[in-house]
Amino acid sequence: MKRMSLAGDVISHIALPGLGLALLFRINPLIGAAATLLLGTFLIWHLQKGGTLTTDVAIGVIWRGDRVFVQRRPLEGFLGGLWEFPGGKRLRGESIRGCLARELREEIGFRGEIGPPVLTIRHAYSMYRVRLHAFVCAWRGGAPRPQAQEWRWARLDDLSALAFPAANRRLIEALRAGGVPGPPRSSRA
Length: 189
Fold this sequence. Notes:
With 189 residues, this protein is of the alpha+beta class. It has two domains: 6-48, no CATH class; 54-187, Nucleoside Triphosphate Pyrophosphohydrolase (Alpha-Beta Complex). It has five helices and seven strands, in the order αααββββαβββα. It has helices spanning 6-12, 15-27, 29-48, 96-108, 166-177, and strands at residues 54-64, 67-72, 83-84, 87-89, 112-124, 129-139, 151-154. A hairpin with a 2-residue loop joins β1 and β2.
């Protein structure tokens, strides 16, 4: 079991430090300001020493026949309004496959088969990096129950008309080039 670094904890659990800092400001603004300065100093020092804030993310390329499931991110927030393959951040102590199973169940009510990992994509944003671990999956009946406001089953050729984050576009390019397996035999219509 891999334990995340302190820097990984900072980015993976950003709400908790933020809540803690807000509480400190409310109790004593001077202590809150000092804690904020200390956290910011640590992050700058960590990045200057060549460290990065890396988050592991598991995503599923879910096939139903010759189509893949994609969903649109909420308009507010990071990468708002862009399309993506479903998945999410790995929690401390969780395997990548376990993360994907949990995220797919929570996000879309996934009922199907999670195949092998097929590609890992490393991508850097301005303050942290992600490792996207892509798995080929097969849908096994029933209707998805996505939390996303907008979603669809799309052919690979249709994905070029949708706006995806850069790391997801790299996965789409690999799918088109045949560098990532297509739908499992049992999901082909």
